[in-house]
Amino acid sequence: MSDSHVAVAEPAHRELRHHFVDMEQQANTASLGMWLFLVTEIMFFGGMFCAYLIYRLKYFNDFAAASQSIDVRWGALNTAVLLVSSFTMAMAVRCAQLGKQKLLVVFLLFTMLFGATFLGVKAKEYYDKYEEHHIPGLNFNFDGKLLGHPDYPVNQRHTEMFFSIYFAMTGMHALHMIIGLGLMAYLIIASIQGKFDTRYYTPVENIGLYWHFVDVVWIYLFPLLYLISRK
Amino acid sequence: MGNTPFWPESASNWAPGVDGVYIFLILVSAVMCVLIFGAVGILSVKYRRKPGVQPTAIEGSHLLEITWSVLPMFFFLAFFLWGAIIYFHERTPPQGASEVYVVAKQWMWKIEHPEGQREINTLHVPVGKDVKLIMTSMDVIHSFYIPAFRIKQDVLPGRYSILWFRATQAGTYHLFCAEYCGTQHSGMIGSIIVQSPSEYQSWLNGGSSNTPLAQTGEKAFAELGCVTCHRSDAQGRGPVLTGVYGKPVALEDGRTVIADENYVRESILDPGAKIVAGYKPVMPTFQGIISEEQLAALVAYVKSLTPAAGQPAGAVAAKAAPQTSKTGKVQ
Amino acid sequence: MSEQEHHIVPVWLYLLIGSTLLFFTWVTYAVSKIDLGAFNTVVALCIASFKATLVVLIFMHVKYTSEKLTKAVIISALFFLGLLLTLSLADFGTRNWL
Amino acid sequence: MATAVVPQQRTNYLNAEHGVKSWLLTTDHKRIAILYMFVVTFFFFIGGIYALLIRLELLTPAGDLVQADTYNRLFSGHGIVMVFFFLIPVVPAILGNFLVPIMIGAKDLAFPRINLLSWYLYVIAGGLMLHVILTGGVDTGWTFYTPYSTAFASPKVVEAGMAAFINGFSSIFTGLNFIVTVHRMRAPGMTWSRLPLFIWANYATSLIMVLGTPVIAITLVLLVLERVFRLGIFDPKLGGDPLLFQHLFWFYSHPAVYIMILPSMGVISELIACFSRKRIFGFQFVALSSVAIAVLGFLVWAHHMFVAGMSVYAALIFSFLTFFIGVPSAIKVFNWTATMYKGSVTYETPMLYAFGFIGLFTIGGLTGLFLATLGVDIHVTDTYFVVAHFHYVMVGGVVMAYLGGLHFWWPKITGRMYPEGMGKLAALIGFIGFNLTFFPQFILGYVGMPRRYYQYPPEFQMLNVLSTAGATILGVGYLFPMVYMLWSLRYGEIAPDNPWNAAGLEWKTTSPPPTFNFHEDPIVDFEAYNYDELKDIPDER
Predict the structure, then answer these.
(1) Could you tell me the fold of the domain covering D26-534?
(2) What architecture is the A45-226 domain classified under in CATH?
(3) A to B CB pairs, distance under 8 Å
(4) Tell me: the pLDDT tens digits for D328-347?
(5) In chain C, how many domains are there?
(6) Mutation target among C24, C33, C59, C79 for the A interface, most CBs of A within 10 A
(7) DSSP 8-state secondary structure symbol assigned to residue B4
(8) Do A216 and C56 touch (CB under 8 A)?
């Protein structure tokens, strides 16, 4: 078995896998794979968006009332935090492209910090919901009033459904954040070990794509969950 | 009944139509099978490997491809239209059908006739009369299936499913549950007994005297206190119900819905869901307070409230709306 | 992206995009306080889509990739997501029509 | 291509390394295909035992062999195991894994380690399912319909749902791997128009895997959340709508039947071309019809729900759209038939399976039209008519194609020939047994026997007895190949590199291929199915 094709141009990069011709093919392959994975993620969250959409149309008043019990300020803050983390992630990828290894680690650390902040705020919000007895299936009790009829209570079951979907969607999102933090930690270790250079930084780039995707999901979750008919 | 049937009995208004499409489909399929299998058989034998004979390279033919793509579409369109017409009729029950309430639960069918007769796993119907089944389930999804009538409808918890038919042939037919519903799914069977009108009448008259369903509903309507708000003189806190059934109802948020069985049901169980324009959402929910049977009786009663002669249906509700000021708007 | 063609996005652009995103988050929040009726949701979703597009085009480098396939992949994902939502709604939205 | 060396002495992917570890940690797509073959065959056995018990119970109208609850667990286990653990992986994960890189001239799939991960996910999911089976089984049917599954069924539904969830990720990663491989790993000269139809079919399948499987994954997660934490999503008691579950479920599970059938169609294209010694008639149309099926497959899902309480208008839309998927399927059948015209047809075992496939798939496809027709569907849905229909497509179609393909590529995979006479006999037995088993079920269905019934009215017995009798013959038809294939591993004739004188890159390497598939990196300067250029090569053997 001769790998004569590869050997002619330049010495093979130590990260080049045996079944690729060159680093370019390898990087393009990994990038396409990541994008396809993000497609599966879109469809994965899509199932929940579908459920959300249908019940929101069906139980609009109850959903609106339930949505207003969530503190929109925390949600807005978290949106900002996540957007900033996306910015630092983009900067991290840029450093990787330019081979600035130290700065890469710094930006990755910042990204992790903002990611952890997001999760912290989320935990605080969850705890508030627990205090207010808004956890479905766990002594749920919602005493909100119907929009436009302050004397009339909303339908408990339907507000409970809002919170079911709220927890399912934000919980699944938070799980993705946690996985993202783990991947980020891996990147930091790998870049300290000097695994990346200007010709090989595919993991940084792909994990960056993943992180931005998680951000995009939240960009939609924020108005859909926090801002139903808020006045 | 040891004989093996190769064709189901045909005992309802749907059977001839469904059988018609089915036979049409079988004929078309049979022709297709003969063509395809014949072609495979002939070509594979005629062009079997022979010494010295080389295969001829053929790229394909756009004309052929287009022909055998487009030609089937005409048949498909015919299948679709014929099937769709039958289906559309199946989903639009006629006026004046006798309305039978069916409550499914694991693993039995409870049936209540408008005249008040109750049956379990048996349904008596007369030949030649339209029968509309208003069905709901107390637990899981079931499916009401009468092969001899060629009709089937899933029965869901939490809402009414509608099915209608007109029996054409006296006899006893299978009733099956066709949606898997747990341990005794295959035991959730019964009989449909189709009788001549006179036999059916004597069946109705036999047995203990029954209170008609609407009358039971009227009693519940009074006992549950519905009558204090839903007064018939448009002075109550709730809308007048006379003549509401089957008519469009204007809602507070600007939408209009048709007051069908499911609307009446929802209004009793979840009164806040669709508030009639001009009224306040003051009605308490009856979720968990009344049984499916009581609910059926109430629905039957509301439906029986037809306006007295000279008063056009739905006029009361429409008149009541403008005089009460609209309170907030739901967005 | 390949070593020959990968595009280095200038820092100022990242900063601009980042601050635009933050600005529009504030806009979303502010607009939600104004009563626009059903348009509140429309506006919020339009802003969200604008923000998402910025993230995808700039942060995720889709604007700079020479690879048409990436764009095709994204569009097809949105197409099939749209199918799921619209065809489901075709049922839930028309159930009471009869 | 070098052909001078005696096959046995050459290193190939089978003897390149030895020991259990070299198999369990391999990233070689061919070895992973073999790993899949073991586990998938094992699950086919489990599913087959279930089928046998079901048919035995239905021999008599009374429920006498097993308890009602046991029977419910039998058909649920049969469905879950056969659908998720046999039909979905069988062709792509075994034949596809082995052949996709070789056919496009690559050394391996794009992500060899993810490929191995897929196999491990499959094994973990399978282990979980096996645990469910051994600890009492699940009784929801493979469809997991709510609210039965979330409020009434045995609690094992959580574990079974998770098994299907994990298995879904195995499927997603396989699909992702195939798509990337086809885009990025083709040998020089291997243009899209030169890709064999088996590759086109697997590519189309992979699209469905990537786009559809995540939806069933999240649906199962929501189901488990509702079951365990009582989060209200689907259960009407909690305010949910059970039809939403059915929409989400079928959004994946209808396209999933195309995950099963498309790669099989790809196999059939290869077989018919080879044994007619001709390029497939209307090559582009057959290739694009695979993609058309994949896309249209996402537009038709709610035809499973015509009696479920769906909107009348939605039912009309879905019925209308469903008919369109008949067109690309019909195109394939017509083109396969036309390929034999002016060919040079021989009747080796794989070709017999291909004939069988055309027969069974045609019947399965045509009866699909019955089910798309609204008025008829109302009567026959949830009866044995549906059971017969999807067995014709999924068992008749997929298993016929798999066995055909396995015989065809057996020499390439193992380096040994299977015994031809026994192969032909097995194909014949399988075909007869299949029709005897499932044709009576069409009649049963139209007469009105509902599916998932454990006892039934006595007048249905005759047809059920026929079906059970057929099932025993079918069982023989499936077991027999397993026996002689194993036998051939040791005693079979040594296979030449290209026993069928077939076109395609996989026949240009040795049998079995070396670890990196080719001794020299291939350059493709010929069209797919260039049988006209092969015709001068003398008859083999």
Answers:
(1) Cytochrome C Oxidase; Chain A (1.20.210)
(2) Up-down Bundle (1.20)
(3) 34
(4) 999 999 999 999 999 999 99
(5) 2
(6) C59
(7) P
(8) yes
